[in-house]
Amino acid sequence: MLKPKIFFLFLTIYIFFSSCENEQERELRQARKEKQLLEWEAKWEEEKIEEQEFERVYELEKIIIGEQKQEEVNNFEQGYEFKASTGGINKAGITDRFQVTYSVNKRGQFSLPKYKYFKVIGGVSQGTSNSIVRDITGRTTVKTNYSYEVVLQPIKLGTHKIECAKIKVDNAIYESETVTIEVVKESQSRQQKRVKHSFEPGLQLGL
Fold first, then answer.
1. Cα separation of 85 and 164, whole Å?
2. How many CA atoms lie within 13 A of 88 on its CB side?
3. Which regions in the chain score pLDDT beneath 70?
4. Which of 22, 80, 147, 201 could form a disulfide with 127 if both were Cys (CB 3.0 to 4.6 A apart)?
């Protein structure tokens, strides 16, 4: 049998080498963990940079699109024409009916106003007309005009403004001009007929 001293010597040597191996394994595991952490940090930084680049490009695209939209609106406003006309009628009787024509040089979503002193007779008639325009350089362009016609009848005596219509182009809404008309009790169409009839040659000569 081994003497106790020799046994304890071998046991000490075994524990020493075992502890050395365990220490090496711990160091290797720790090194692997640190390496993995470094890889994760590098990957996270790379993804963060990609995300920041994406956000930068996205914001830049938003600015460009916003500028393009604003340019379209500015171009529209520069050549913007949205008129309203009663065809020269500035006075109407309470029982008369007259036509209002809204004309605009841009295509869009048209909507009538809510009339306060007039009622709408029938629906809206739409039309399109083209004209050739020559600028100072001699270049010719075709100009398109869109018209919307509605027949109104007064419901209250007095001088009233005919409310403006609206048209939506892209995300912008534009209003037409307003027209003022005087509403009287007597029918203007009948009065015009009487005036015309009184100026007939036979009536003036008493024939």
1. 11
2. 0
3. 1-24, 61-62, 64-79, 190-207
4. 147
